[in-house]
Amino acid sequence: MSRNPTFVSPFHRPHCLAAAAAPAGKVKLTHPGKAILAGGIAGGIEICITFPTEYVKTQLQLDEKANPPRYKGIVDCVKQTVDGYGVRGLYRGLSSLLYGSIPKAAVRFGVFEFLSNKMRDESGKLDSTRGLLCGLGAGVAEAVVVVCPMETVKVKFIHDQSSANPKYRGFFHGVREIVRTEGLRGTYQGLTATVLKQGSNQAIRFYVMTSLRNWYKGEDPNKAINPLVTGAFGAFAGAVSVFGNTPLDVIKTRMQVHTTIINDLVTCSELNLFYYTCIVLLVKPRPSLY
Fold first, then answer.
1. Beta carbons of 194 and 252 less than 8 angstroms apart
2. Which residue ranges run through the membrane (predicted)?
3. Which of 24, 73, 125, 205 has fewest C-beta within 10 Å?
4. Which sequence spans correspond to the domains of the chain?
5. How many Cβ atoms from other residues are within 10 Å of residue 32's Cβ?
């Protein structure tokens, strides 16, 4: 009995189409370019919504060194700012952070997707430990490329706007003045603390996020996750990372205003000072692309 002949297409299938079809049971990979675009958009939206919490956090961290302190707490800081400058006062320094938040989120998620695509197992799954390492790499990358200069300018700008005679007329004028008086190094004050802070922050966050995603998906790596569930996972991961690296955030802020490292480390030696702004950071949502 003759067998039916197998049809062979005379047309060559493009390699890109062949690669796009993921084998059954293998997770679909996210292109780093897509993560960069989505991360940039999410970062811009995030900072426009949450900047008042960032402003209050920075003011409280800087006020710890005042004698006597200017603010009695979060509510008093908000009240004094609104009384003195109106609601717009809570957005002073927004431009410095907005210009940096878009590339920061883009670098973070782009680098994470690039590293995670390289570190997945044969089935395309990323375990929690590798998620931690990818998050660490993403955090270090964003710290060096974007976060340190952006945060230094932001802290200096907010600190300047709170003084009796502000010397910076805007973001670009502030950058020019900092570079002119302190050189390019002036925008990289506190680099070590920033790298440690961002690296540990993203390592913890992506570790928790990856663990939760793997738990939710179970044996089906392509199982869809509801956006609300993703948001809940992201909020929990962000809260865990806040408690994990708030001390480094306080040290970083102090070092970006003052050039003497030893004084900052001594001043920040008491543990209760480290966690002074935890509650402010906890109410600040974080973007998640999962």
1. yes
2. none
3. 24
4. 192-259
5. 19
Type of residue at 19: A
The model's pTM: 0.65
Beta-carbon count within 10 A of 37 CB = 14
**242-268 exposure pattern, b = at least 16 Cβ within 10 A, e = fewer:** bebbbbbbbbbbbbbbbeeeeebeeeb
Alpha helices by DSSP H, the chain: 15-20, 32-63, 74-85, 94-119, 128-142, 148-161, 171-182, 191-217, 227-257, 261-267, 271-274, 278-282
Answer for the pair 158, 57: CB distance below 8 angstroms, yes or no: no
Q: What are phi and psi of 23, to 5 degrees?
A: -60, 155
Identify residue 87 by its one-letter amino acid code. V
SS3 221: coil
- Rg for the chain, CA atoms, rounded: 23
Query: What DSSP letter does each residue of 68-114 carry, written as one string?
Result: S-S-SSHHHHHHHHHHHH-GGGGGTTHHHHHHHHHHHHHHHHHHHHH
pLDDT tens digit sequence for 181-238: 888 888 888 788 888 888 998 999 999 999 999 999 888 878 888 989 988 998 898 8
- 106, 196, 57, 244: CA torsion to nearest 10: 100
- Predicted confidence (pLDDT) at residue 263 exceeds the cutoff of 60: no
